[in-house]
Design brief:
Domain PH: 210-306
Number of strands: 11
Order of helices and strands: HEHHEHHHHHHHEEEEEEEHHHEEH
Distance between the termini: 175 Å
Strand content: 5-15%
Pfam families: EF-hand_SWAP70_N, PH
Domain EF-hand: 7-42
Number of helices: 14
Largest sheet: 7 strands, antiparallel
Radius of gyration: 80 Å
Shape: rod-shaped
InterPro entries: EF-hand-dom_pair, EF-hand_SWAP70_N, EF_hand_dom, PH-like_dom_sf, PH_domain, PH_SWAP70
Main location: membrane
């Protein structure tokens, strides 16, 4: 029932579309009433004129859309349809409504009847989707059947080229485009209109009328047992035979069922190529024109019986079902592939976004890295410049240090030389000190000697004064005494003169001692000055070297330039010595 409903909906859709003159998708209720009445009449369904009004009584007086008409059509017409109606007349009624509006004017090789048959074939082969279209695979199947019926060769390359030219956005051709394609003769070049018409009629009978095989054969009568030629038509469940192929005078039917069988018979009664069709009621002896025809009929009848036993549809319907399932499978695979492609595209877009994000991140990272590299290079250049400056400065410092080291080395050498000199000076100073000590001892000796001489001189002066007084007293006493005194005076003067000479000699020796003392003192001052200069230098270069001096048990004096060269006792002794030297010339 479902397949019959789908089969009926396609011509009705064409009729409804033809009534939609302004292509708004809606048809007036009056037109739908006429269409519904005609459908009920042709489909042998009781017509209820009030049902349409009641169905749309809640609507306004405006037209009704296809979606609005379908519930009524299903409920009141299609659900009541049985298989006892004339499909050809039903299709012709729908064809009459849509042909004038849509049929191309120049169909070339096709008559109106041929165009009608192509339109019915289109409805049979078209997809169950609206608007109706026929898939390229079904177009190829139909064109192959027509080429086979015309006896012409099939040009696959020509069809492939045509299929490439089809609009990729469309899923196939409409009925009117298919009629125009077949009528153009593009795939039937060299064939006249009659040949094309016969081919369309043959394909129409096979696909629409379910004619599996047809042709003239001889049949043996049941009563007279005579052989008469009849036109046999094989359908899935029946074999009908007519007087001629115009099908006007039907002579009988052979009903096929699970109990029927067909078998070949040997030649007899002058008839050849015999075979027998057995049924529950009768047996039919048939004679084909040749062995090939005989074998084809036996095979076709046996195939029909086997299909009835299996409950399968006719071969062309089974082939259409398989093609449809294959298309659906391919479409499902295509949709799945498209879905997967979409998913892959989405995933790819996501990946692209991720990659774009990663690329941006990498670019940002690269920019940051470049910036950091620039900063690093800048820092490196700055560090390098700084390092160069530091290096130059270090070189300069190093040169200065080298110069200083060289200077220090020379100074050290000079200092070492000076130390050697100082050591020599120290030795000389030691010698000078020894000489000073010796000089002091000599000075003491001289001073003692000088003091002794002074004492002697004083004693002698006292004696001279005493002698002088005595002389004066003696002079005063007597001249003789004076002479004696004069003599004594002379003697005394001579003694005084000798004493004076001795005194002058002592004075000379004292002066020499003083000069010697003065020389020793000058040497001592010079040595002290040299020692002070040496101590200053030593104090100035105290960090480099310190003189090795003999230790002293007494505490050393500490000056601003470091430890003093003499002890406090030595300094006091020298001060006393200098004071003594200063006081001695005054005496």
């Amino acid at each position: 029932m479902g397949s019959l409903k789908e089969e009926l909906l396609k011509p009705i859709w064409h009729a409804f579309t033809a009534l939609d003159l302004d292509k708004s998708g809606k048809v007036s209720k009056s037109q739908l009433k006429v269409l519904s009445h005609n459908l009920c009449t042709l489909l042998n369904v009781p017509h209820d004129p009030v049902a349409l009004e009641e169905h749309f009584r809640d609507d306004d007086e405006g037209p009704v859309s296809n979606q609005g008409y379908m519930p009524y059509l299903n409920r009141f017409i299609l659900e009541k349809v049985q298989a006892n109606f004339d499909k050809i007349e039903f299709n012709k009624m729908c064809w009459t409504l849509c042909a004038k509006k849509n049929l191309p004017k120049n169909t070339l090789l096709l008559t109106d009847e041929d165009a009608f048959k192509v339109w019915v074939i289109f409805n049979f082969l078209s997809e169950d989707k609206y608007p109706l279209t026929i898939a390229p695979e079904e177009i190829e199947y139909l064109l192959k059947k027509l080429a086979e019926a015309m006896g012409s060769g099939w040009h696959q390359e020509q069809f492939e080229h045509y299929k490439i030219g089809l609009d990729a956005s469309r899923e196939g051709l409409s009925a009117w485009e298919l009629i125009e394609l077949i009528g153009s003769g593009r795939f039937s070049k060299g064939m006249d209109r009659q040949t094309v018409s016969m081919a369309i009629n043959e394909v129409f009978k096979e696909l629409i009328l379910d004619v599996l095989k047809q042709g003239y054969m001889w049949k043996k009568g049941h009563r007279r047992k005579n052989w008469t030629e009849r036109w046999f038509v094989l359908k899935p469940n029946i074999i009908s035979y007519y007087v001629s192929e115009d099908l006007k005078d039907k002579r009988g039917d052979i009903v096929l069922d699970d109990n029927c069988s067909v078998e070949a018979l040997p030649d007899k009664d002058g008839k050849k190529c015999l075979f027998l069709i057995k049924s529950l009621e009768k047996c039919f002896e048939i004679s084909a024109s040749d062995k090939k025809k005989k074998q084809e009929w036996i095979q076709a009848i046996q195939t029909s019986v086997n299909l009835l036993k299996l409950g399968n549809p006719p071969p062309h319907k089974e082939a259409r079902r398989k093609r449809k399932e294959l298309r659906q499978k391919l479409q499902a695979e295509q949709e799945e592939l498209e879905r997967q492609m979409i998913e892959l595209q989405v995933a790819n877009e996501n990946k692209q976004k991720e990659l774009e994000t990663v690329r941006k991140q990498l670019e940002e990272a690269a920019a940051r890295a470049s910036e950091e590299e620039k900063k690093r290079l800048k820092t490196q250049m700055e560090l390098q410049d700084r390092f160069c400056l530091e290096l130059e400065r270090e070189k300069m410092v190093r040169q200065k240090m080298e110069e200083q080291v060289a200077q220090k080395s020379s100074e050290l050498e000079q200092h070492l030389q000076r130390v050697q000199e100082l050591e020599e000076m120290y030795k000389q100073l030691q010698e000078a000190l020894e000489e000073e000590k010796q000089a002091r001892q000599d000075e003491e000796t001289v001073r003692r000697l000088q003091a002794r001489l002074l004492e002697e001189e004083s004693a002698k002066r006292s004696e001279l004064e005493k002698l002088h007084l005595e002389q004066q007293q003696t002079i005063q006493m007597t001249e003789a005494e004076k002479q004696e005194l004069e003599n004594q005076r002379k003697i005394k003067e001579h003694a005084l003169h000798v004493a004076m000479q001795q005194l002058e000699q002592l004075e000379l020796e004292r002066k020499q001692a003083l000069e010697q003392y003065e020389g020793v003192r000058k040497k001592l001052e010079l040595a002290a000055n040299n020692t002070k200069s040496w101590k200053d230098k030593v104090a100035h270069h105290e960090g480099l070297i310190r003189l090795i001096e003999p230790g002293s048990k007494n505490p050393h004096l500490i000056t601003n330039w470091g430890p003093a060269a003499f002890t406090e006792a030595e300094l006091e002794q020298r001060e006393k010595s200098w004071k003594g030297k200063r006081s001695s010339p005054d005496q």
